[in-house]
Automatic annotation (TrEMBL), chain A:
Entry EC number(s): 6.3.5.7
One of the GO BP terms on file: translation
Family: Belongs to the amidase family. GatA subfamily.
Gene name tied to this protein: gatA_1
Active site: residue positions: K80 (charge relay system), S155 (charge relay system), S179 (acyl-ester intermediate)
Assembly description: Heterotrimer of A, B and C subunits.
Gene Ontology cellular-component terms listed: glutamyl-tRNA(Gln) amidotransferase complex
Catalytic activity: L-glutamyl-tRNA(Gln) + L-glutamine + ATP + H2O = L-glutaminyl-tRNA(Gln) + L-glutamate + ADP + phosphate + H(+)
Keywords: ATP-binding, Ligase, Nucleotide-binding, Protein biosynthesis
Function: Allows the formation of correctly charged Gln-tRNA(Gln) through the transamidation of misacylated Glu-tRNA(Gln) in organisms which lack glutaminyl-tRNA synthetase. The reaction takes place in the presence of glutamine and ATP through an activated gamma-phospho-Glu-tRNA(Gln).
Record GO terms (molecular function): ATP binding; glutaminyl-tRNA synthase (glutamine-hydrolyzing) activity
Database matches in PANTHER family: GLUTAMYL-TRNA(GLN) AMIDOTRANSFERASE SUBUNIT A, TRANSAMIDASE
Signal peptide from the UniProt entry: none
Lineage: Bacteria, Bacillati, Actinomycetota, Actinomycetes, Micromonosporales
Name of this chain's protein: Glutamyl-tRNA(Gln) amidotransferase subunit A
TrEMBL record, chain B:
Record key words, sorted: ATP-binding, Ligase, Nucleotide-binding, Protein biosynthesis
InterPro entries: Asn/Gln-tRNA_amidoTrfase_suB/E, Asn/Gln-tRNA_Trfase_suB/E_cat, Asn/Gln_amidotransferase, Asn/Gln_tRNA_amidoTrase-B-like, GatB, GatB_Yqey_C_2, Gln-tRNA_amidoTrfase_suB_CS, Gln_synth/guanido_kin_cat_dom
Protein name according to UniProt: Aspartyl/glutamyl-tRNA(Asn/Gln) amidotransferase subunit B
Domain of life, source organism: Bacteria
The species this protein was found in: Rhizocola hellebori
Gene name linked to the record: gatB
Alphabetized GO MF terms: ATP binding; glutaminyl-tRNA synthase (glutamine-hydrolyzing) activity
Length: 499, 493
């Protein structure tokens, strides 16, 4: 069934402005798709249909009054459940926050609302954003819209599936070590992890504070630039927020003639699927034909990035997640005899295995006597990664590589092998450690599934990598229209929805 | 059982003090919530100080400034770059289950504070001054003691959570022997005065805006330092002194009997003056400190620090030296004023017009006695410097005698209002109407003919008896000088 929400935001923005369609009609369509497909995908944890319809009505009324509206006004957007929403349940994918209704909006959410975007609901995710497949959700796995037997990637898997299936036109995800880029690549979407500090983290339930960033997940580069612009900007409530002005849409189509592009050879890892590598190479060839000067380069420290990340991120997480103790909100174990037991049992019952694993690893890494060997050393690796990147950007404007070493894998394939799961993030982690912006753009297919090419530049270079991604998108001609042909897929764990 | 004197004859104490001071900033350390003391529970809270998911801290610049000023007043070096750190441990009144504090990069370090005990100067080294956030407060209800044991419910008030807290840590202070308890008290008193002078906190120990932990160890003369204990919950100046004294005696007796001191936290009890064992440091929490990733490093601008230093007020020691000269006092006089906690009170009384001698007389006399009897701080008696100045003015104007003035002061202490109001209400006044007095004098003469005869004979000293009789009949309201003059003139030849 055709849905208005299958179109891109910039297309719809024009139609809304011209009065060809109303925000109410558009939102109804998106909510309709959610209703028909959410059982199969499990991409939404909360659907805010009532609030969405009233927000859509308000946008239509504002437009009727002749108010000047921005490009996101009236566009149905999904929000990852790790961003708090005032009055709407927010769980971060964890049973420990089941039923938690925040009293405030995350800054990114507030900016979406100010821009007139219609928040249709909160999307499923790996618990506390810890995972690469969305199988670590406390509320069940999300299924890949192209093939229900596969994972959509994680941790922003619900957001990726929602956009790829047309449940929303765009979505917000968060990225700590690849959590928006990996699912976007798996689901054939564009997503950008901005420079650390570009988007306020206020209201983003922290996984690893020094790495977390909010970013857009969309069906094309123009939408990514538009949505990023809407949520960017300094926020006095986030001490790590940047003052840099955000204009990403101007000159998006300027082309990349003469752009110096470095191919990072370390990102083509040993275990990489050959078809994925081939697709990425084909994408790079297109950059050459678009006039870029492409050369191979080496950043040896990238080999250690994954290990450093799996010390730093769990260390910060072990502290960030300490607040979930049953005292003030969320799950409280009812049978405890004293406060210590209450805290312990609430955490025991509320957290899933992967979260517990990372809390233990992080606690260990920060312990007296181990701090220097783990946390401190990992921070040193991080510094080396940053230095090597700075040196590389002396010679190159942007660097490229694959977004993931594989395509979307089968549900259950990696759940019993944490290291295999962690390896899915091998190509996205160095940029997170360095705090630099990185975009993934769908470049083609491998085994019939989408492959993403990753472009990353120095701090604040969002406009530049968006321009490169835009040029590549035009030449790649990837078909990013939503897919809901679930009937053709084997879906052993989920009932297919209506086509 | 060794007495204190026995202990100091055989052992040498080393003390160290950790003092927490709640800053009097308008808003909390990392959010915009107000910091008013005594508000209804959980009314001064927001997502940040409640540690709600997704909330982030933002540093309060006023708190940084106050801390730098404290550091400068304590002769510390101010870090040109430093970070906050997370101190991780679980406690139900700590919203995030970590405290934002400072670890190996304090804002101020390596200073000193000079304190005087009986004219002797002690230089107390300051290890560090750092900034952190306060925790909430737990209330245990349903039990008999208000403590967690036996309670049926625990309630948490988060109003205090996130109030900026400055921690001032001394270096170990050795070599003070029997003076250790007094030096400890003098240090805390001096620190309190410095901070009050800076105007960055109300430093009220009884309200918890200044809290002290006292570290004590003993070693045999000439040997290496012993194992220390940390006594918490020391909530008054008097307790600082008592806690050091009692801990020295406790440790001395253990050592004397061949025992070992356990490194532990002890809790001081104001009522008994004794401490009891808290948690042992042998099973101490590993706080897993690491740099706070939600905050950017602090880098106080050198010019700004210089400006703050230049703008520091006159500090208490310098101030006292000036007052000693201005008031024409000896060093010992000033020491007794200081011990009584009366410097500021006397100064304010003088500022209201009283002479330094008179102001000192009232505060160190009647008012100190009153405060001691009730076990309260001199400044908390309810009498203001202005009222003392008013009282003295009435004496100077001859409207009150010294004796009557003391009666009026009683009324002021009882909350009956300003001196003039007390006089009116109680009907206290000097009888200076010579007509009325002459009658009383004549009556006294008539009642004591022998005495009158002696006076007529030139024995003026005998007049005292008649004056006393007149004072009795006028219920003390007559001016003794006037009565004397009248008696002598009536009996002159």
């Amino acid at each position: 069934m055709e849905s208005l929400a299958d179109r891109t935001a910039h297309e719809l923005s024009g139609m809304l402005a011209a009065g060809e369609v109303s925000a109410v009609e558009l939102t109804k369509d998106a909510l309709g798709v959610i209703e028909r497909t959410n059982k199969a995908l499990n991409s939404f944890l909360t659907v805010s249909d009532v609030q969405a319809m009233s927000a859509a009505k308000a946008v239509d009324e504002a437009r009727a009054r002749g108010e000047k509206l921005g490009p996101m006004a009236g566009i149905p957007v999904a929000v990852k459940d790790v961003l708090v929403t005032k009055g709407v349940t927010t769980t971060a994918g964890s049973r420990i926050l089941e039923g938690f209704v925040p009293p405030y909006d995350a800054t990114a959410v507030q900016r979406l609302r100010q821009a007139g975007a219609i928040i249709v609901g909160k999307t499923n995710m790996d618990e506390f954003a810890m995972g690469s497949s969305n199988e670590n959700s406390g509320f069940g796995a999300v299924h890949h819209p192209w093939d229900l037997s596969r994972v959509p990637g994680g941790s922003s898997g619900g957001s990726a599936a929602a956009v790829a299936a047309g449940q929303a036109v765009a979505a917000l995800g968060t990225d700590t070590g690849g959590s928006i880029r990996l699912p976007a690549a798996f689901c054939g979407l564009v997503a950008i992890k901005p420079t650390y500090g570009r988007v306020s983290r206020y209201g983003l339930i922290a996984f690893a504070s020094s790495l977390d960033q909010v970013g857009p997940m969309t069906r094309d580069v123009t939408d990514a630039a538009t949505l990023l612009e809407a949520i960017s900007g300094h926020d006095p409530a986030d001490a790590t927020s940047l003052e840099d002005p955000a204009d990403f849409t101007t000159g998006l189509d300027r082309g990349i003639k003469g752009l110096r592009v470095g191919i990072v050879k370390e990102l083509f890892t040993e275990g990489m699927e050959p078809e994925v590598a081939a697709a990425v190479r084909r994408g790079i060839d297109q950059l050459v034909s678009l006039g870029a000067q492409v050369e191979e380069c080496s950043l040896p420290s990238f080999k250690y990035a994954l290990a450093a990340y799996h010390v730093i991120a769990p260390a910060e997480a072990s502290s960030n997640l300490a607040r979930f103790d049953g005292v003030r909100y969320g799950l409280r174990s009812p049978d405890a005899r004293d406060v210590t037991e209450m805290m312990m049992r609430s955490r025991e019952e509320g957290f899933g295995d992967e979260v517990k694993r990372r809390i233990m690893v992080g606690t260990y890494a920060l312990s007296a006597g181990y701090y220097d060997a783990y946390y401190d050393k990992a921070q040193r690796v991080r510094t080396v990664v940053i230095r090597e990147l700075e040196a590389a950007y002396e010679n190159f404007d942007v660097l490229v590589g694959p977004t993931a070493p594989c395509v979307a894998f089968k549900l259950g394939d990696r759940v019993n092998d944490p290291v295999a799961m962690y390896l899915a993030d091998i190509a996205t982690i160095p940029m997170s450690l360095a705090g630099i912006p990185a975009i993934t753009v769908p470049i083609g297919l491998a085994d019939g599934l989408p492959v993403g090419l990753q472009i990353f530049g120095p701090h604040f270079s969002e406009a530049q990598i968006l321009r490169a991604a835009f040029a590549l998108e035009q030449s790649a001609g990837f078909d990013s229209r939503p897919r809901r042909d679930f009937a053709h897929s084997a879906a052993p764990q989920a009932k297919p929805g209506q086509p | 059982m060794l007495s204190f004197d026995d202990v100091v004859a055989r052992y040498e104490p080393v003390i160290g003090l950790e003092t927490h001071v709640e800053l009097g900033t308008q808003t909390k350390m990392f959010c915009g919530c107000p910091t008013v003391f005594g508000a209804e529970p959980n009314t001064q809270v927001c997502p940040v100080c409640l540690g709600l998911p997704g909330s982030l801290p933002v540093t309060n610049k006023a708190a940084i400034e106050a801390t730098v000023r404290i550091g400068l007043a304590l002769n510390c070096s101010i870090a040109s770059w430093c970070r906050f750190a997370r101190k991780n441990y679980f406690y139900p009144d700590m919203p995030k289950n970590f405290q934002i504090s400072q670890y190996d990069e304090p804002l101020c370090s390596d200073g000193y504070l000079d304190v005087e005990v009986d004219g002797e100067l002690f230089r107390i080294g300051i290890e560090r001054v750092h900034l952190e956030e306060d925790t909430g407060k737990s209330l245990h209800v349903g039990g008999a003691t208000g403590r967690i044991h036996g309670a049926t419910e625990s309630l948490v008030d988060f109003n205090r959570a996130g109030i900026p807290l400055v921690e001032i840590v001394t270096k170990p202070v050795p070599g003070i022997g029997a003076r250790a308890p007094e030096v400890a008290k003098a240090y805390v008193a001096e620190l309190r005065d410095v901070i009050r002078t800076l105007g960055v906190s109300d430093v009220k120990m009884e309200q918890g805006s200044m809290r002290c932990d006292v570290n004590t160890s003993l070693n045999k003369l000439g040997e290496t330092w012993g194992t220390r204990t940390e006594t918490k919950n020391v909530n008054s100046l008097r307790s600082v002194e008592r806690s050091v004294r009692s801990e020295m005696i406790r440790q001395g007796n253990i050592l004397e009997n061949g025992g070992h001191i356990i490194q532990e936290t002890r809790h001081f009890h104001e009522d008994t003056g004794e401490s009891t064992s808290g948690r042992s440091k042998e099973t101490a929490t590993d706080y897993r400190y690491f740099p706070e990733p939600d905050l950017v490093p602090l880098a106080p601008d050198a010019t700004w620090v210089k400006e703050l230093k230049a703008a520091l007020p006159e500090l208490p020691r310098v101030h006292r030296a000036r007052l000693t000269a201005e008031w024409g006092l000896s060093a010992l006089d000033m020491q007794s004023i200081l011990n009584a906690g009366a410097v500021e009170l006397i100064e304010q009384t003088v500022a209201q017009g009283a002479s330094p001698e008179a102001a000192r007389k009232w505060w160190l006399g009647e008012l100190s006695r009153h405060a001691n009897e009730r076990g309260i701080e001199l400044g908390d008696s309810g009498v203001t410097p202005s009222q003392v100045a008013q009282l003295q003015k009435l004496v100077d104007e001859g409207k009150l005698t010294d004796k009557l003035a003391r009666q009026v002061l009683e009324g002021v202490l009882a909350g009956e209002g300003d001196p003039a109001e007390v006089m009116a209400a109680r009907g206290i006044e000097v009888v200076s109407d010579t007509g009325a007095l002459t009658v009383a004098v004549d009556e006294a003469i008539a009642a004591n003919p022998d005495i009158a005869e002696k006076i007529r004979g030139g024995n003026q000293a005998a007049a005292g008896v008649l004056i006393g009789a007149v004072m009795k009949t006028t219920r003390g309201q007559a001016d003794a000088k006037t009565v004397r003059e009248l008696v002598l003139s009536r009996l002159s030849n």
